[in-house]
């Protein structure tokens, strides 16, 4: 590790050690120009993009170990891209993406279909869908249309058959816990266009934690600190405290187990904790742009439910690609990432992770209905699988704070503060692809503030 001189450098504080916060911190730290610290309220880094070991099974905290657009999406550009091209070049720390064995699969009425590319999916459906696909791809949707009254499903029904839409909708359910009729048409069109032009999904070597470990190693190399079990409770103007008066911000940090906050000065803040969290900690001394508070208050976070199964090595389905379960009321699909990264389960075992959206607030009954769905749709599950755990993700903590298509701003109008992460996914980019799509501009903005400070 090389020594980094921090004295006199502008200070950047990153709030939250999710993948958005850590990658922003890494971009800032790699410049060598700033003193960078990350504060995380949990006792581990990675937020919803890491895992915990359970008897050799790498159980996710959220993400099902998938990089949606593989090596051709914004996440690969950011994590693995060369520094000369704005990437972090984390291959230096062993970060590697492994391809899934199929672009996508479908299990329908007991029959399994697998496709090696997006074109391989089309023969599963009536010809009308292949003929109309160019019209979907040519539709202008690079930006949200604004004031949209039509949802994605209604728009798609003009061009495609129900079985094709159900297949795509199962993917949406699996990937982002939303159905097409819950999103504006321009968002759905752009998601499909991005998926079409991108790669098959990949799986990080070592799972999500492999990426987080790479980010942590890079931060350490560049002199940045990651403080776990430290929650940011208040953001005040620098002059609020004697010790921070030379800084733009005075930040209250509460260490786990302590009552009172300590005060920390910062020249810029990257916030990875979501808009509601930022707004509740921000003092009234800062003027938030008109309409933002209302937009945030009116934005409902989405939820999901995921089962994790231990599978034996005799299972008849041996692919790591996302398998859609169309036509089910709840579950969208499953993945068995161990067919690409065997290290995610003990030797001779496999791990299957499912995902379903939550149409009803009674999470308990949704869990049992989802379980019924799974045993009914997957003919081999009862003979080869054993349920390890079920996770629920609902309300605001700590991910899916803003549903895809909500288009909340990264800039709430306060100079020196930018949001990154799930709350500000780029238009039409799913999951960590959406996070990565927005990190570079947030980092550029706070860097400008610090350079002018
Ligand atoms: C079930 C499920 C499956 C998913 N599968 C995939 C997948 O396979 N592939 C994929 O790409 N994406 C997937 N996603 C989405 C992906 O997990 C998220 O998009 C991503 O992990 C969110 O990252 P983030 O940067 O927004 O931060 P988060 O993971 O939300 O982390 C934010 C962090 O900030 C901390 N924090 C918040 N407020 C404060 C504060 N005041 N002080 C200190 N710390 C604070 C939180 O504790 C948390 O650790 C999935 C999501 C879910 C729920």
Q: What would your notes on this structure say?
A:
With 453 residues, the chain is of the alpha/beta class. It has 2 domains: 232 residues, FAD/NAD(P)-binding domain; 187 residues, Polyamine Oxidase, Chain A, domain 2 (Alpha-Beta Complex). 30% of the residues lie in helices and 22% in strands. The protein has 13 helices and 19 strands. Strands 7-6-15-16-17-14-18 form a 7-stranded mixed beta sheet. Strands 9-2-1-13-19 form a 5-stranded parallel beta sheet, with helices on one face. Strands 10-11-12 form a 3-stranded antiparallel beta sheet. A hairpin with a 2-residue loop joins β6 and β7. α1 runs parallel beside α8, α1 packs across α13 and α2 crosses α13. The N terminus is likely disordered. Flavin-adenine dinucleotide binds next to α1, β10, β14 and α13.
- Biggest sheet, open or closed, and with what strands and sense? 7 strands, mixed
Tell me the β content. Answer: 15-25%
Enumerate the distinct ligands: flavin-adenine dinucleotide
How many domains? The number is 2
Biggest sheet: strands side by side, in what order? Answer: 7-6-15-16-17-14-18
CATH superfamily of the largest domain: FAD/NAD(P)-binding domain
Radius of gyration: 22 Å
- The total beta strand count reads 19
Q: Indicate the structural class.
A: alpha/beta
Terminus-to-terminus distance: 29 Å
Q: Under the CATH scheme, which architecture of the largest domain would be assigned?
A: 3-Layer(bba) Sandwich
CATH topology of the largest domain: FAD/NAD(P)-binding domain
Helix content: 25-40%
Shape estimate: globular
- What is the arithmetic mean of pLDDT? 94
- Low-pLDDT parts are 1-5
CATH class of the largest domain: Alpha Beta
Number of helices: 13
